[in-house]
Structures are given as C-alpha cells and as structure tokens.
Amino acid sequence: MVDDAFDALADGHRRRLLLSLLDHNPQDVSTVDGIPWKVAEIDEELTRKYHVHLPKLVDYGYIEWHRDAGTVVKGPQFDEIRPLLELLDDHRDELPDGWP
Q1: How many domains in the chain?
Q2: Which of 20, 3, 7 shows the shortest CA–CA distance to 56?
Q3: What's this model's pTM, rounded to 2 decimal places?
Q4: By its UniProt entry, which InterPro entries does this protein fall under (predicted)?
Q5: Of the candidates 81, 85, 66, the residue with the CA atom closest to the CA atom of residue 27
Q6: The domain containing residue 45 runs over which residues?
C-alpha cells in the first residue's frame, strides 16, 4: 500500500489530480487546478493521461473515473493516501520546485 501511494505521487499530473480532489470532488479531468490537460498537450501526454495516469489511480482505488462524463471522484482507497496529500499540501512552500 505504501509503495502504491508513492508510485501514485511520483508523477506531477497524478499528484495535482489527487491534491485537487482534497477540495473539489468530483473533478473535471480536462482541467486540474487550473492546469489544462487537453488543448495544449501533445498527443503523447494525452495518451499517457488516458492510458497510464488515470488507469493507475483507478487500479490503486484512489479515484473512480467516469469516462463518459469526463470526471473523476475520490475512490474507495482515497482515505489511505489522504494523509500524504495533506502533508504535501500543508508544506507546499517548503517542497522543491516541481512539487506538487
């Protein structure tokens, strides 16, 4: 479980999505925390979003992805990663560039 949490947090897109769910549930997957995932992205990033990032978070149970609606909501295991997310959020100013 700890390895899953750190793997989920290892990518900036996944971190921002999970952090955004602390305050806004559901979350539109086309925009997370004001960062567009759609228009300006190159095809490779879009592919990674839909075939790597979102499915990985679903597999870990941290999100439920409603593809037709284009939204994600907190998954059944979200509370397992919540303490790490809150720690990151509380210490955002102390973290190196690129976090979250």
Answers
A1: 1
A2: 7
A3: 0.80
A4: WH-like_DNA-bd_sf, WH_DNA-bd_sf
A5: 66
A6: 2-92
